[in-house]
Specification:
Blueprint lengths: L8 H6 L7 E4 L3 E5 L7 E7 L12 H17 L6 E4 L15 E5 L9
Antiparallel strand pairs: 1-2, 2-3, 3-5, 4-5
Bound molecules: guanosine-5'-monophosphate and zinc ion.
The site of zinc ion has 6 residues, from helix 1.
Length: 115
């Protein structure tokens, strides 16, 4: 199987090969601002190790680290009134980057149900 991480844009960010505004990180995960923010706060949290999506059996410990880092980012960015964490998975959900990522969105009211 081809090494998907070689050409993966989020792996390149994790390796420091392309720039990103990193806001938090730990051993397993890294958080950086989305290039095209959909809310006043829009941060992406990714596992350092490539996994294409939630449907590709991510390591449960790593997945936990991703979610806990999402909560840390929300606290750091002062989202005391709440925030949304979204993991788009597959074409129906509009996943465009095939490296698992959690969106942390906040700083405005979030509509429910989402579009
Ligand atoms: P998806 O639609 O796959 O859930 O979300 C992918 C997200 O990645 C989008 O919100 C898009 O704006 C963001 N994105 C795509 N390319 C880059 C990039 O090179 N740098 C950063 N920081 N965000 C990116
Ligand atoms: Zn990747």
């Amino acid at each position: 199987m081809a090494d998907e991480s070689a050409s993966c844009i989020f792996c390149k960010i994790a390796r420091g090969e392309i720039p990103a505004t990193i806001v938090a990180e730990n051993e397993a995960a890294i958080a950086f601002r989305d290039l095209d923010a959909k809310a006043p706060v829009h941060v992406l949290v990714i596992p350092r190790k490539h996994v294409a999506s939630l449907d590709h059996y991510p390591d449960p410990v790593v997945l936990g680290e991703v979610l806990l880092l999402a909560a840390e980012v929300a606290r750091k960015d002062g989202l005391k009134d709440g925030y949304r964490v979204v993991i788009n998975t597959g074409p129906d959900a509009g996943q465009t980057i095939h490296h698992l990522h959690a969106h942390v969105l906040g700083g405005r009211n979030m509509a429910w149900p989402p579009g």
